[in-house]
Amino acid sequence: MLTYVNGPKHGVEYPPAMNQAASALVARHVPAPPAPVPSPSVGEALPLPRTDWLGQHRGALTVTDDFAVLDDPIEQETFTRALAPLEEGEGDAESVLVVQGMYCAACADTVESVLQHLPGVQRAQVHAATRRLTLRWDPTLTRLSSLARTLGESGYRLLPMQHALSVSERLRETRQALWRLFVAGFCMMQVMMYAWPAYVTAPGEIPPDINQLLRWASWVISLPVVFFASGPFFASAWRDLKHGRVGMDTPVSIGILVTFLVSSAATFDPSGPWGAEVWFDSLTMFVFFLLGGRYLEHKARDRTAGALDGLMNRLPEVCERQKPDGGYESVSLRRLRVGDTVRVQAGQAFPADGELLDGRATVDEALLTGESHPVSLQAGQGVVAGSFNLGGPVRVRIDRIGADTRFAQIVKLMERASTEKPRLAVLADRIAAPFLVFVLLAAAGAGVYWWQIDHTQAFAVAVAVLIVTCPCALSLATPAAMLASAGALARRGVLVRRLQAFETLAGIDAVVFDKTGTLTHDHLTLHKVTTREGASLSNAWALAGALAEGSLHPVSRVIAREAVARQPDLAPLAGHTERAGQGMQALRPDGSWVRLGSAEYCGLPPSMAGEHLPAVHLSDANGWIASFVLQESLRDDAVAAVTALRALGVRTWLLSGDREAAAQQVARVVGVDHVIAGASPEQKLAEITALQARGLKVAMVGDGLNDGPVLARADTSFALGHAAPLAQSQSDFIVQGGKVMDVVNTLAQARATLRTVRQNLAWAAAYNVVSVPLALAGYMPPWLAGLGMAASSLLVIGNALRLARR
Amino acid sequence: MDILYLLIPLSVLLVFGIIGVFWWALQAGQFDNIEREGERILKGD
């Protein structure tokens, strides 16, 4: 019966050490850092029973073998969402769960294959490094609890993805791992002491009875090492055996068992057929080295998972909602509804996306920008969930809650990316399986061969071959590096949608920039307005504002904003149609059309567009009404970024829908190599295709709003700024801070990632190629083999973690 | 040399005893957050 209780544990503190630097940054601006525990007065005012609370405030949560908690609809809200039907008739759900009991990358395959064969499961994707499971399932066919029970029979446990649970589970796993490591290490030292006399004396020098006593003592001390400390190896090997597969731990387990059985036989029957040689010192040593490797791997993995959790952990557990009588009550985040007004105290995180009601606020939006500096917001501006309120208490009206918030979209994007398996990793996995079979055969062959030459050597050689091989390094090489990079970028505000994109990005040799919103700021400012003789300015604004209101184009946004400021009563127009990149058309109540857009679209002579500055024009059936001349400003780091790209050997293009003159001017200032101006969206697509036809690998940088198809057509793509809804974004990388320089940094990071992946793969291959023949030839004692394998795994993980520091 | 018949079994018991003490320390949470103990000295209060 698996029963555990999750209560408020001593010493559990979140976020973990890795995020303390970030917390410290925040803390500089905040007198009292966001405390996870609500103040006593808040706690007393809470109208809900304590059991309704989340996380560590909830008190004891008992999970028993029936996994009923997974079916609880209220609980499910945190880790499950309904998906729109893919085809007719099915409405799937997607859940993110934690898999407990995974020891190496191969376990991910086992979990996936078990789940995928169950009825009602559409897709199961496990990420080994974070132990996340993304499960797509059909609620009409199955229940999560029954899936969990079936998986439990294979030796893995499914837990809901909640921080509190995963923290206490992770703590328990860490303790267990440390415990096993200590037992193996301490017993190893003692066994070595008992073995030492045999090494330093001539044969026969120790009296036979004392010699026998030392062997018995070694045997007793080895028992906990074999039967307790080696548990994870046996458990994982047994699991693979039941599924009729050879896993990473199969050779290791066979090695441990063979060594122990042969040494035991020699201890109790020195004259028997197995000889009088004992290997307890080698046995305990290689178990210790392997466990040591596992433990450090486990730590490294926790740091990656901790980085993700640290990001997800930013929302408060409770918030203060305004009651109809004006007072405040504390409610659980899940009770919050759109339209509620909440008060956010200084130092607290905003619980949901909303609109600021009070005068002004100072907010830290590090979540979006990756940079922790205060941003001033006015009443009426939007705040995002997960950013911190640095000033005094403010009131916010909630616009979006739960899964609709930008925060939730970011978290989801990161989770999705981290469960994906890059192409290189799939390749490595495919090599690892037959390699293991080869190792088993080679070990058996070596044992038989050496038996005929030297009985005492045969076991040592066979065991050394089993232990020394390290397919784990092969499997870990790629995902570990890419995940470390994705984590490092996320901390700087760059989100990675697909891990695979690192490989593509590292190989690009051309970067194509969109102009508006990319090299220049996405907000234009109004330069001047000219109107037709006799036309009223306020009428022009009313018409322009009403037209621009329905469009997301940056120019339209400026016009709409300026119009509302000048002319609150917009003209009553209907039947809006937009031609992308050209303009808008709508109908007056009397049926006559009005257009807002480029000179060409409005049917005006090209001479109207003669200036260097971008302009939009307003016209109707009677001709020109007004022109709005805008000016755009370059982003501060555009020049530096383009220069840096050139230094990296990447050619740059400017691809703009704007007029030649405006595009040329920007290009000249920034220093872009080539300019293609006046391109419609269709032409942009064609230009990208043409570049690709010339053999160039193209990365497209856009604002993610108007250039979706172009971003999708390029080999890899960036969306700059946070104008576009994340969920609809087509791009592989999302630069939230809106800094062009981050594109360059991401490119450098991708190149470093690929370099590390290649180093890791080369190391794993070279190590196995060298060590296996050495072991076969009898030059490798088992303890050295254990050290070699542990060191090889650690080298790969350590090399990957260097990327997280960049 | 007869004393070895006492000392060697005694050393085995000692090993198990020390392992037991470590188990207690581990379960009491002493090793849960080793890094934090080192940072504590830097914190003002």
From TrEMBL, chain B:
A Pfam family matched in the record: FixS
Signal peptide segment: none
Transmembrane segments: 6-26
Domain of life assignment: Bacteria
InterPro entries registered for this protein in UniProt: Cyt_oxidase_maturation_cbb3
Keyword vocabulary terms for this entry: Membrane, Transmembrane, Transmembrane helix
Protein name (record): Cbb3-type cytochrome oxidase maturation protein
